[in-house]
Amino acid sequence: MAEFLQQLINGISLGSVYALVALGYTMVYGIVRLINFAHGDVYMVGAFAGYFAIKTFKLPFFAALVAAMAVCAILGVIMERIAYKPLRNAPRVAALMTAVGLSMFYQNFTIYRIGAQPKAFPKIAQVNWQFAGVTVSNSQVLILGTAIALMIILHFVVQHTKMGKAMRAVSQDRDAAMLMGINVDNTISFTFAIGSALAAAGGVLVGQYYGVVQPLMGALPGLKAFVAAVLGGIGIIPGAMIGGLILGVAEAGVSAVGFSTYRDAVAFGILILILIVKPAGILGKNVREKV
Amino acid sequence: MRAMDKNRLIVAAGAVALGIILQLLIWNGTLNAYYAQVLTMMSIFVIMATSLNLINGITGQFSLGHAGFAAVGGYFSAIITTRLQLPLPAPMIFTISLLVGGLIAALAGFLIGLPTLRLKGDYLAIATLGFGEIIRVLFLNWKYVGAAAGMWGIPGYTNFIWAYMLAVLTVIFIVHFMNSSHGRACISIREDEIAAETMGINTTKYKVMAFTFGAFFAGVGGAVLGHLIRLLHPATFSMTFSVEILLMVVLGGLGSITGSISAAILLTFVSEALRKFNELRMVIYALMLIGIMLFRPQGLFGRKEFSLDLLTDSRFMFKSSKNRGA
Amino acid sequence: NKPAEPAAPAAGDNTEEGDIVIGGILPMTGAIATFGQSSKKGVDLLVEQVNAKGGVLGRKVVFKVEDNKSTQADSATAAQKLIQQDKVVAIVGAVASSNSLAAAPIAQEAKIPMVSGSSTNPAVTEVGDYIFRAAFIDPFQGAVMANFATKDLKAVKAAIMTDANSDYSIGLGNVFKDVFTANGGTIVSEVSFVSGDTDFNTILTTVKNAKPDVVFVPSYYDTVGLILNQAKNNVGFPAEVKFLGGDGWDSPALFELAGDAANGHYFSNHYSPDVDSPEVKAFIDAYKAKYNEVPDALAALAYDAANMILTSIEKAGTTDAPALRDAIAAVELNAVTGKIKLNEKRDPVKSAVVIVVEDQKQKYFTTVNP
Amino acid sequence: MPILETKQLIKTFGGLTAVSEFDIYLNKGELIGLIGPNGAGKTTAFNMLTGVYQPTSGQINFLDESVVGKYPYEITQKGIARTFQNIRLFKDLSVIDNVKIAYHQNVNYSVLDSILQTRKYRQEEKEITEKALEFLKIFKLDHKSQEYAKNLPYGEQRRLEIARALATKPKLVLLDEPAAGMNPQETQELLGLIKWIREYFDLTILLIEHDMSLVMNVCERIYVLDYGKIIAHGTPQEIKINPRVIEAYLGEEVPVC
Amino acid sequence: MLKVKDLNVYYGGIHAIKGISLEVEEGQIVTLIGANGAGKTTILRTISGLNKGKSGTITFKNTEIQTMPAQEIMAMGISQVPEGRRIFPAMSVLENLQLGAYRRKDRAGIKNDMERVFDKFPRLLERIKQQAGTLSGGEQQMLAMGRALMSRPKLLLLDEPSMGLAPLFVQAIFSTIKELNQEGTTILLVEQNAHMALSIAHQAYVLETGRIVLSGDAKELASSPEISEAYLGGTIGH
Ligand SMILES: Nc1ncnc2c1ncn2[C@@H]1O[C@H](COP(=O)(O)OP(=O)(O)OP(=O)(O)O)[C@@H](O)[C@H]1O
Ligand SMILES: Nc1ncnc2c1ncn2[C@@H]1O[C@H](COP(=O)(O)OP(=O)(O)OP(=O)(O)O)[C@@H](O)[C@H]1O
Ligand SMILES: [Mg+2]
Ligand SMILES: [Mg+2]
Fold first, then answer.
1. Rounded to an integer, what distance in angstroms lies between the CA atom of residue D149 and that of residue D143?
2. Which of A37, A25, A70 is nearest to A191 (CA)?
3. Which of A256, B248, D127, E14 is least surrounded by CB atoms within 10 angstroms?
4. Start and end of every ABC transporter domain (chain E) (predicted)?
5. Count of structural domains within chain E
């Protein structure tokens, strides 16, 4: 029982890492319909920004977190202006490909400039709580708490604020949004700024949690976050959270029962099964287009 | 019609002549083993890219699972050539292994196609990516084919002329398919699935067909690759491989076969040319890729086909696919 | 069939007529770029040292690296390019065994000696008589630690954690399992992860609950660092449970990542900084001076692999293929990673040292002879 | 003997009942109108007849066979073709390819034939091209056969959509607001065209239209739908003066013509 | 109020608008009629800033607006009911209407206008929570109109507002247009239904393949034989 609970907690904390990255993923997707393949790498850049903020600029942890978010927000805007904006009217897959290119660029440029060696990320003071034979650490709580808080804030922003309404309008019909007086460029920039800042927050928190940053650290979480986002219904913010948690708990479960070699296969298997039953993800509505 | 046939004949003859000339140059040493290897890789990527184009570009189904099909083809063909002691001459064994690899990959494509066809767009992409990964994990755990250590000692049957011929056959198959009513059915699914259905097109059947054919050639491609590098390793068939092939398809122009061919050749060349830059190699590659995409968002060729007509009609450099068969 | 003498390199960056060109097939990009970078640094250091002393056979040595993106197909093409275009006389590489296995048949057919620093799969050198290595092979290292666990640590229950994507990791794990069970021990848990994972809490919990005496983690320092860290700090492994590993652990990054969680655990290695070997000391000092960092095992192995080649050229007095091959086969070298002498399978016969981590530093524990 | 007959056809979306009492019949060769206020459920009814939506309950019999539960392509193959309220051409394909695609179900050569480019393939392809051009000629689109469909002016797109529907060789054609977006001049031409194709292809036609100048002039019978229910049924003359129809649909000011 | 001068618009190589000039006086209804593909939509899109002209000027209240981004043009008081409705399909009816008032801050005024819209189109009130994309064609047209009204425009550009509407609603739309005009909104109306358009408009321009071929008083044009021949369906008419 204790083991089960412990594994559940492990699964939830892994899932909240996925969720944290998936939130930004899904938001950017929801607004610009772009699978931002580079999202995981922005997360990596964020983690490095946090790392250098602490190591080189000697900032305290939370200041470093904010700094990393700021850096990535700016990076997100720049990246949108240079690599995505010119492709707004191009086939969607073109932007997807520049995202792949950006992902390659971030990874390899970091390898080139900083080296491929992993770097130890300074941890915040660790506190472990024990009860009923299970251990929970403050980092785990911090990540889960942040993910939930961000999910609620994001959901509120997108669904209930004027900016959020503008974002959704832009996602559905850019010309019509302009006719409403919405500044489409600013709205999309804003979306990328938020999405990238979220990725950075994830990068710093997760870097801190595992105590490591390295140039390829975004690849796997990026992929898993993508899966999580799709699982929950891509573009739907609470869906990313649900998807992340399901994925994390499923992976933990598979490993716990001794099939760790098949972990990723099972994770994808679950995804496919869920999609076959619910083709638009758990929270997605599968509305047939009205003709 | 006449002019069309004539042009096609010229293209076909040109392709054959090019193959023969290159092979002769390889034999007499003008093109050394390195060039032969690169040309062979280009041919393999032509097989992979055009077959993915059948699924992604022509039928409009966003698949990211091509590496998985290649893995199936590669491994099963290698089982034929290494684990079975067939008392046949090498070319025959190789031919059989290619067929078996292709057919089992096609079966995989069929099985994957069936349940996932309900999915649309990005959901299909992630599901196919998932299937590709599942296939890879299965090979990673299959001791019979070496699991994580990979399968080595595969005979090096592949040479330039094999790969080239297979690439030509693949292209012919896909072009002929595209130019038929069956191909048009696939294209109509890409354009508007609901309208296609109301035109009496069994969209499921054609989607599965595209997946199956695409997977077959991906399997053949994987088999050729395996017998070139004489080693199969699950890591070869990771998602990166699928993405790389997708890059070629998009870069060439979704739906354009000549585009896929050109992009496969171009990207293989670029990757080779940049090799010596070591750490900077992929940085430059990435920047180039972004640059090309920004410069030509619809791909090098858009949906059009590069055509010999430009020789006869100097006004148009590119001829729209809509003209074919007319 | 390729005349290698006098080396007439194709025109290229800072290569001149008469230089001795050594090729390198290394993962400079991709999943294991970190190992490629280390390996290149190791060889670059050697080449610099050798050229400072006037080169080999009075000729300047040039090291040309071709990136293989950590992939098999690229390794094969890189081998062709080095041999056909760059006219190298020998090749260092690749890092991963699967990559070496793709390059080896090409080197073998062209009769260009290839020495891998770090490919441990026995099959690599079985490709042919032109293929060599500087590293231990999997069976040796796996056996060393299994025996160490049984004899020195008196362990009867072991758990194994392997990287499912790494043939190195799985190879060592399998041998460990065989030897440990042959010694009368039982394997109580076998789990795996994949390179790139950062969260090991789940599998560590599984392992912990199986109550092993020792946990064998034959993987590289980048993941092992995280595993040790999480084992102690998150999962709360008791201090009595010892983690064991192979030469992949050898890197200062391990101690950075694991912190004090690395203390008290053991791994096998080629050398120990403690051992008063002048080669080791000289290498570490020079490496630190050049790169301002401590070398890892891959740097040392690549350094030695290149050294095997250069020493043999000097000895053979030529870069001619068959002579050079014979010289490498007969090489005897006081290398950084131990005394290297190759057996008939072209694998080095060298002793291993077992290192214990104390105060986040490597400390010599014992030597195990093959 | 009706060619198409529906009984108690119901369609609900969540809580909303879009169509509830939809009982109609069409005799072979008839040209029938379906009118009703916006949101009455006309398009929804079309969607059920063509299999795009599954009816919540009720029967649809076409040529004495139930087509409920059949896929849209099966229904098309049985002989019902349609156009869409919002034009759904294959925009990025040429005009002729649009028609050729519709011809697909009448193609007999196999995939193998096309790969090997057998005689059968070549012959049928030639036939398809000729047939398609013939269709285009009928609709005065032959001079634009190589144009992208999306580049045609609106009226021509409408015509092409009809041509494409007819290329499936249907027995029954459903037209959803064919005159929408056309000016009176073009509507007049369309009116003639619809009459003509019915004769020439021996068709039964059901059409939705808000342009009374068209409906009242071509239709033999008219069904009026309001809030999902058929509220009136009769000849144009009867419908024009039906007070319920005037109140729900036509308005006081009796339209032109 | 609005002056278009020597406007040229291209789509790639296609010269869609060929040196058009037109004027809309404050308080008037001006209609633009012409066959399919004449360029009516293009003119409206260019005024709104969705397309950019190659040469020529567009001034609104003596300000040159051609160089301004679309959202700023809208903020000056120009609203458009675009061709093809262009409602936000995944949003509710209510949200669509709210977006119409995106640039406004006067809550009371917005509320007031919302009621006015529901007054004119009670069907929208019935469907207030429904996803706009699932509305019937005509309902969507009403929504597009309602949405434009929510911005309280000074100049309203209407692109075929009666398309796809039932006769009853067509009458309603036209009376709405008239009402709006009487309340002070200036209107530029593009219509296929030239009859109706000419009957409510003050001024009219007739467009043919990118050029203005006729212009003048709407009533006069309505009775001119050329117009009735080409745009009013010839034989049928009053
Ligand atoms: N997928 C759907 N989900 C929810 N409601 C729908 C859906 N499709 C249609 N409706 C509703 O059903 C009713 C009927 O719609 P339908 O499109 O059939 O109307 P229509 O008679 O064709 O109207 P119009 O003449 O305006 O095109 C409408 O009120 C519409 O809002
Ligand atoms: N996006 C576009 N790309 C290329 N050409 C276009 C585009 N939009 C319109 N055109 C062309 O510009 C011309 C004018 O089109 P526009 O849509 O303005 O006409 P319209 O008068 O509004 O016609 P309709 O009555 O059909 O709405 C047409 O020839 C059309 O084919
Ligand atoms: Mg309708
Ligand atoms: Mg228009």
1. 13
2. A25
3. E14
4. 2-234
5. 2
